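Hi support team,

I submitted a single chain yesterday and got back a structure, but I'm not sure I'm reading the token output correctly. Could someone confirm the output below corresponds to the sequence I sent? I've pasted both exactly as they appear in my results page.

Thanks,
R.
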Amino acid sequence: RGCAPVKEVLCQNNVKYATIDITSGITPLRSFLKIRDTSDTHAAAREKHTIGLPTLVIDDEIFIPSPDQT
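Hi R., thanks for writing in. Yes, this is the structure output for that exact sequence:
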């Protein structure tokens, strides 16, 4: 999956994280869509009509890692 490189970097740096599967139900999907539809970080994703995954939320800051950052 597309998240594998991000998870690898987090593990290599001993960063604890929780994975939320947005396909597991409507509640996780709605939570993600609220972030995606309102965050400035996702503006480019919205303009390009892409999903904006993976998304990292760290201390209420939102990040979309690009492939060259992993």
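A quick pointer for reading it: The chain has a mean pLDDT of 88. Let us know if anything else looks off.

Best,
Support desk
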